[in-house]
Amino acid sequence: MPDTMALETRALTRSFRARRAPDRTALESLDLALPVGGIHGLLGPNGAGKTTLCRIASTVLLPTSGTARVLGHDVVAHASRVRRSLSVVFGGERGLYTRLTARDNLRFWGAMVGLDRRSAAARADAMLESVGLADRADDRVESFSRGMQQRLHLARGLMGDAQVLVLDEPTIGMDPVSAHAFRDLVVAMRDEGRTVLLTTHDMAEAQAVCDTLTFLDRGRVVAAGTPRSITREVRTVRATVTDVLPEHRPLLQARGFELLGDGTAVRTVDRDDVAGLLGALMAAGMVHVGVEAPTVEDAYLSLIGGRRMDL
Ligand SMILES: Nc1ncnc2c1ncn2[C@@H]1O[C@H](COP(=O)(O)OP(=O)(O)OP(=O)(O)O)[C@@H](O)[C@H]1O
Ligand SMILES: [Mg+2]
User: Fold this and answer.
1) Domain 5-231 in CATH: superfamily?
2) How many other CB atoms are there within 10 angstroms of residue 173's CB atom?
């Protein structure tokens, strides 16, 4: 089936009963088509529906209506096939046996995904190595830091050879170096031909690794495309002036710049107004002026930022 998607949803809706309140709709008639291969980022504010989608894709939560298919298999009608094709890693501390060692957790999980004893043991060792936990393999998980537990979650997710990996905030709580190594691992998974569905609140991470992005807000898709196609839609760019001289400060403030502690000034500006603005600054004698292309974070802020903290 050449057009089989890694994850495809049609009018996928999930609502939850709320106490003494109308039902809460976590996903509202969602249509998604994520192709096989690649790292697909799922971005959106708290409560957007990202985890709900991950849970439906991994068959632990049923849709209220609509359909979801993983590699062509319906998550309701063919749940066991879906479970064989997909592996899920949730952020946080759930799902590990904290009184067992890292190695025993992975061996146990290997048995769960159908490996025989010897293959499970070998695979567990290989995975501990690849997530940098080999020297803590025989320590109980309860003695692990959050980032270490997170790495063990990923190792667990890789015990089988699922073609689709669902990673829900996998780098939450990881230090920057570990998060970087983790991203390399995710890219390696993609390069082996697997499909990765990644939710994250880290915009730099999304920009660095994702081949496609889907922005969700209140259970609906608000934008989808490649990082480049999405950032190209942003109507504003970021203007910067570095090495600001004291005599230039009043003009910059009058022009709406924010003066930062490191001697730079920044503001966002509509693309159409860039030339005029920079011209005025240069005419006033400023030479270190520039414009940065919009980032995924800029796209996120322009699509979703207006809402601030309301849920
Ligand atoms: N088991 C549940 N019972 C009731 N409501 C739920 C349940 N699970 C999720 N919801 C609601 O569904 C909506 C979407 O939640 P979800 O966890 O999918 O968001 P999210 O995008 O993963 O957010 P976050 O970025 O905070 O992880 C929220 O309004 C949430 O309160
Ligand atoms: Mg979530």
Assistant:
1) P-loop containing nucleotide triphosphate hydrolases (3.40.50.300)
2) 17
**pTM, full prediction:** 0.88
Sheet (strand 5-18) strand order: 21-35, 5-18, 65-70, 73-74
Residue 311 reports pLDDT greater than 60? no
- Domain 235-293 listed as CATH 3.30.2310: no
Residue among 16, 167, 215, 216 whose CB has most ligand 1 atoms within 8 A, to mutate: 16
Overall average pLDDT of the 239-260 stretch: 95
Segment 19-37 shows an average pLDDT of 93
Q: What is the DSSP code string of 217-252?
A: ETTEEEEEE-HHHHHHT-SEEEEEE-S--GGGHHHH
Residue 111 has pLDDT above 60, yes or no: yes
Report which ligand 1 atom has the smallest distance to the Cα of 54.
18
CB atoms within 10 A of CB 98: 12
CA dihedral 74, 79, 81, 83 (to 10 degrees): 120
- Nearest C-alpha neighbor of 159 from the set 234, 98, 108, 217: 108
Residue nearest to atom 24 of ligand 1 (CA): 46
Q: Would the pLDDT of 93 be above 70?
A: no
Q: Which sequence spans correspond to the domains of the chain?
A: 5-231, 235-293
